[in-house]
Amino acid sequence: MTETFKKIPIFRPEVTDTGLPQELRISISELLKQGCFIRGRAVLDFENQLAQYLSTNNVIAVGNGTDALLAALMALELNKGDEVITPAFGYPAAAEMICLLGLTPVLVDVDWNTFNFDPVQLEEAISPKTKVILPLHLFGLPARMDDIMQIADKYQLTVIEDAAQSLGSDCVVDGKKRKSGTVASLGCTSFFPSKNLGAWGDGGAIFVNRDDPKLWNRLRSIVNHGQEKKYFHTMLGMNSRLDTVQAEVLCYYLSRFGDNCRRRVRIASRYTESFSQLESLELPLCAEVNSYVPNLYTVKVAKDRRDALQSFLNKKGIASQVYYPLPIHRQKAYAPFVRTPVKLTNSEQLPFCVLSLPCFPSMKEWEQEAVISAVKQFFRESHV
Ligand SMILES: *Cc1c(COP(=O)(O)O)cnc(C)c1O
């Protein structure tokens, strides 16, 4: 069987197996009758249900996760040249939006094991121009929000969490478990199909985590062309909304979200158990106080073996992916805008070592067995 199985993807949407679920057949047929594709009832329902799940004040659904970050930054009324501190290693959507607004991304290094903000470096990077800290919970591993919030308090900075990869993960702050994305005053997430809560297209949301009607109203306006009421535009905004079909889809997946998170956790635990004896493989580590819903299971392999492992897996029909091959300060588009006051040792090295393995709720047991045995075989045969 090892040589003949079908290709194992890095991600496969649940519908590929189940087809259109009955609940959605009904709700989407209803929606077709009403024809309310924009700002339909399901959008509000979804915002409320997600706010309830996260135990937060308000959720504003938007067109995608990048828009969520852009709108959150716009709502803070920053000035050109103000600095936003964000990690140098990770998906660059936040850094990109920071540049687009004429702000300066200040990049700091990440911890080797957790891929997240190093709080000591974070504090070193603060300057008089710093206004915002923008941590990222990479691969679903929660950043150390306890430390980050303390630093933010000390220097009176606003924090925006990029929770695009971490929906469902918990952070422990002041001894209490809080959902990632809801600890800072603002959180952002994405419903890109492969994210922990995925739609059938694009989607995103902003979490307004404090009782702050002014901020909430500003954000509502910003994502709706800066309108205070219809056809009265009081600030510069954008057009970003979740459409009603995606909201129906997300209401359905939110009802199954707990189960799907547990599946992700189970798959990651099984990898961790199976690979614990492999000295050549470094496994993702979660800061012990935090609980983690993996979006990707990302291992580290000695530099000279990583590409060999990837092509070995590929030959066996197993997809894997290098997230991410180039740190943000090395990207041509952002390099002219960034400030890098601290050493970015790990962010420089990680792109050569990381490899993400398939880890998604509809992954079958035999598929994971195949991945595990292929990885073990690689290290057995290459004697490293
Ligand atoms: C996916 C992702 C985004 C962007 O989300 P989109 O919905 O694709 O715009 C932002 N930040 C991180 C960390 C992401 O993984």
TrEMBL record:
InterPro entries: DegT/StrS_aminotransferase, PyrdxlP-dep_Trfase, PyrdxlP-dep_Trfase_major, PyrdxlP-dep_Trfase_small. The modification N6-(pyridoxal phosphate)lysine is found at residue 195. GO terms for molecular function: pyridoxal phosphate binding; transaminase activity. Keywords: Aminotransferase, Pyridoxal phosphate, Transferase. Gene3D superfamilies: Aspartate Aminotransferase, domain 1, Type I PLP-dependent aspartate aminotransferase-like (Major domain). The keyword Ribosomal protein does not apply. GO terms for biological process: polysaccharide biosynthetic process. The active site is at 195 (proton acceptor). Signal peptide: none annotated. The keyword Transferase applies. Pfam families: DegT_DnrJ_EryC1 (PF01041). Belongs to the DegT/DnrJ/EryC1 family. This is Aminotransferase class I/II-fold pyridoxal phosphate-dependent enzyme.
